[in-house]
Amino acid sequence: MESSNFNSSLLHFLQSSPTPFHATQSMKNRLLSSGFVELHEDHNWVIEEGGRYFVSRNGSSLIAFTTPSLDFFNTGWRMIGAHTDSPCFKLKPNAQVTRHGHHQLGVEVYGGVLLHTWLDRDLSIAGRVTFKTVTGDIKSRLIDFKKAIATIPNLAIHLNRGVNSDGFAVNAQEEILPILCDATNEFELKHVIQRQLEKEHSDIYVDLILDFELSMYDAQPPALVGLHDEYLCSARLDNLLSCFVGMEALIASNDERPSLLICTDHEEVGSLSTCGANGPFLEDVLRRLSPNPEHYVQAIQNSMLISADNAHALHPNYASKHDKLHAPTINQGAVIKVNNNQRYATNSETAAIYKDIAAQEGCNVQTFVVRSDMACGSTIGPITSGEIGVPTLDIGLPTFGMHSIRETAGSKDAYELYKVLARFTKRTNLIAK
């Protein structure tokens, strides 16, 4: 795949994946079209040599893997990890609010949202709806309004004179309720949801909306930006960018080594869930593939995980926020993330493996270490390595504005990471014992 085609497919993936449910469905569609077979956790599995498979949990997390050999305890796995969720606003169960002539939506902040970036944006709604059909069945389906249907207007500077000098703190309870329509129009949220559900799924006859998991999202499409298209600007780059890169690397693996992609939900809120990295999903899958306890431990110790999650690029307007010797630049290659307090799981051996592979591909490598006087974020890397004991590298693509409604990465970096990860899936030797 060429760089321009890669970025075009990436933009389409981002646009079609406004929620973790939609991202998982997008990955399912891509994997099915590439010859992967869907497995179901409540069925018996028949895994064959030379197979390509995937399984999902909760509709928002996915594990895909290839089995060129079934001798996992000798070959180990080449694993790539990412997460499907992004900071956002999620509708509360009783979301319908009417105030001062406007119908609004009560929302809950999910993850570490950069709140002010959501003001004055064109917002839409997507997610999962659970309902009872006219025949009495309970089902769930995805919906996506796609068009802009809401906004959160800023307060005029005339009513907030000190905003540019004193800063602007946004109250999450009172000041981020999206405005949906004016109160002269009749509005019942569940009726709106039901109409959208029946519009998108013509075979569904809904009797009653029972519940929903719906998120607000930026309706502006992703785009290449810059005089020479140097930048990729989009919502949810953290971390759908890594999901896409990892998926394409797995598809391109040519089945030379057993390889596995894990994309889990709820990383932005700690990963502790049935489908999160701090839950049992990955271990459940690996133990089904290596049911012998001795072989399972051997397989893990012959494996390596690359946890791919975005890294903080050196912002030219805020250069002092970086350690000047560990300040990665956009479009200069992926970033190895190091933290000796184990906020990242990188060690010298896993970093060395990545550097060696990158050199073979002619790709640049950068390093990020947070300033010693600042707190460090974390990823699924330490969680997964702590859960199953797999040697792990934390890496990411340099990004501006992480956790903003619209983030910025380099248009060259994703394709370079894809090339390195694709070679990683074929890697025979790790660290010599």
* CATH topology term of the largest domain: Aminopeptidase
Largest sheet: 9 strands, mixed
Mean pLDDT: 95
Radius of gyration: 22 Å
How much strand content do the residues show?
Answer: 25-35%
| Strand adjacency order, main sheet | 1-2-3-13-4-14-18-16-17
Q: What is the CATH-assigned architecture of the largest domain?
A: 3-Layer(aba) Sandwich
CATH superfamily of the largest domain: Zn peptidases
What does this protein structure show overall?
- With 433 residues, the chain is an alpha/beta fold.
- It has two domains: 3-86 and 235-424, Zn peptidases (Aminopeptidase); 88-218, Aminopeptidase i, Domain 2.
- Helices cover 27% and strands 27% of the residues.
- It is built from eleven helices and 20 strands.
- It has helices at 3-15, 20-33, 72-75, 163-166, 189-200, 237-251, 281-289, 293-301, 348-361, 380-388, 413-424, and strands spanning 37-38, 51-57, 61-67, 78-83, 88-99, 102-110, 123-133, 138-144, 179-182, 206-218, 223-225, 231-234, 259-264, 304-308, 311-312, 334-337, 365-368, 392-396, 398-400, 407-410.
- It has a nine-stranded mixed beta sheet, sandwiched between helices.
- Helix 9 (348-361) packs across helix 11 (413-424).
- The radius of gyration is 22 Å and the shape is globular.
- The model has no long low-confidence stretch (mean pLDDT 95).
- Its EC number is 3.4.11.-.
- This is M18 family aminopeptidase.
- Belongs to the peptidase M18 family.
- One of its GO terms (biological process) is proteolysis.
- It holds the Pfam family Peptidase_M18.
